[in-house]
């Protein structure tokens, strides 16, 4: 329902931990058909207007406590859905973990590297990305190296290994986490951001839940499932940071009404369909769910088990 093909795919729910998994893993050739050239992870930072990049950097410097910015403070105080217009919460999460600007950071499943350029913009200087599905080794507009390879092929150790909505796209979650464990420094951590079935959105919408996103999402873990997966490779869940917003409601409502996301013509169309009051109520509800640990997506901080 992202691109409106309306094809159906079979999934199963683990009876033990409520983790959702696809029954038949698609071949790379077949899967490629379900990623259009304008899929969001392929967009380059060079396409982002300069004023938007500046606003994002103001917010990020505020989150990292590296400079006083009235604009950054205002953006930081906005509801999550509005704040999301100025970039996702990954920099806030790194700031909460006290990550040093010289930390060795790799973004796995980096796509065009737009997130890496965002980190470079605020002073992170030891960055790289890995993604076996990019066309070739390259660099981002800000010079961050991007490697066309799987994490298991990458050499060196890292202080932070990020999976920003990429781990749910691989068929072997355990194997990928195991490769990450071998490349973590002793005090390092993995930041895994992904959707979770331990959420009100999954309970309410089921197969119409927007972050089900068949067939691109192979595995969508519950919170317990994420803890089991981490333990299987010698990691532990050190922190969980919910970061859902009103998207979980309005996008799922669209799908429930048989409206594909590609058929929506911008923010104005969404406002016309639902009204500002309903969207605002969904934002406040999302904030409450985040506080209660029931949001549709979260950042899991995984560290090596003692």
Q: How would the blueprint of this fold be written?
A:
Blueprint: E1 11-13, E2 20-22, H1 28-32, H2 50-63, H3 70-76, H4 80-83, H5 90-96, E3 105-108, H6 114-121, E4 127-130, E5 138-139, E6 145-147, E7 158-164, H7 173-182, E8 184-195, H8 200-205, E9 219-220, H9 223-232, E10 235-242, H10 247-256, H11 266-274, H12 276-292, E11 297-304
Parallel strand pairs: 3-4, 3-7, 4-6, 7-8
Antiparallel strand pairs: 1-2, 2-9, 5-6, 8-11, 10-11
Helix pairs in contact: 2-3, 10-12
For the largest beta-sheet, the strand count, sense and barrel status come to: 8 strands, mixed
At the first level of CATH, the class is Alpha Beta
CATH architect. name: 3-Layer(aba) Sandwich
In whole angstroms, the N-to-C terminal distance is 43 Å
Q: Stretches where pLDDT falls below 50 for ≥5 residues?
A: none
Q: Which oligomerization state do the chains in this entry correspond to?
A: single chain
The pLDDT mean sits at 89
Shape annotation: globular
User: In what range is the share of β-strand residues?
Assistant: 15-25%
What is the topology, as strand order, of the major beta sheet?
Answer: 5-6-4-3-7-8-11-10
What is the chain-wise order of helices and strands?
EEHHHHHEHEEEEHEHEHEHHHE
Kindly state the percentage of residues in helix: 25-40%
CATH topology: Rossmann fold
Keywords: Methyltransferase, Transferase
Organism: Mycobacterium hippophais
GO molecular function, one term: methyltransferase activity
GO biological process, one term: methylation
């Amino acid at each position: 329902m992202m691109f409106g093909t309306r094809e159906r795919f079979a999934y199963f729910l683990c009876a033990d931990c409520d983790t959702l998994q696809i029954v038949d893993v698609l071949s790379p050739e077949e899967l490629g058909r379900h990623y259009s050239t304008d899929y969001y992870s392929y967009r380059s930072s060079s396409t982002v207007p300069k004023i938007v990049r500046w606003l994002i950097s103001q917010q990020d410097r505020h989150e990292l406590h590296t400079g006083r910015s009235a604009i950054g403070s205002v953006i930081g105080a906005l509801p999550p859905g509005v704040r999301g217009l100025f970039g996702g919460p990954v920099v806030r999460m790194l700031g909460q973990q006290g990550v040093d600007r010289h930390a060795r950071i790799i973004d796995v499943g980096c796509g065009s590297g737009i997130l890496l350029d965002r980190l470079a913009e605020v002073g992170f200087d030891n960055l790289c990305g890995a993604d076996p599905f990019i066309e070739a080794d390259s660099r981002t507009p800000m010079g961050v190296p991007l490697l066309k390879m799987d994490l298991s092929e990458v050499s060196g150790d890292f202080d932070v290994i990020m999976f920003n909505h990429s781990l749910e796209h691989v068929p072997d979650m355990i194997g990928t986490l195991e490769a990450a464990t071998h490349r973590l420094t002793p005090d390092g951590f993995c930041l895994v951001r992904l959707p979770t079935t331990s959420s009100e959105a999954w309970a309410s919408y089921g197969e119409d839940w927007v972050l089900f996103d068949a067939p691109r999402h192979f595995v969508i873990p519950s919170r317990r499932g994420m803890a089991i997966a981490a333990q299987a490779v010698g990691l532990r869940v050190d922190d969980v940071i919910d970061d859902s917003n009103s998207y979980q409601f309005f996008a799922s409502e669209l799908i429930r009404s048989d409206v594909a996301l590609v058929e929506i013509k911008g923010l104005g169309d969404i406002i016309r369909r639902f009204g500002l009051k309903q969207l605002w109520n969904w934002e406040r509800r999302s904030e409450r769910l985040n506080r209660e640990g029931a949001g549709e997506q979260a950042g899991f901080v995984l560290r090596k088990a003692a």
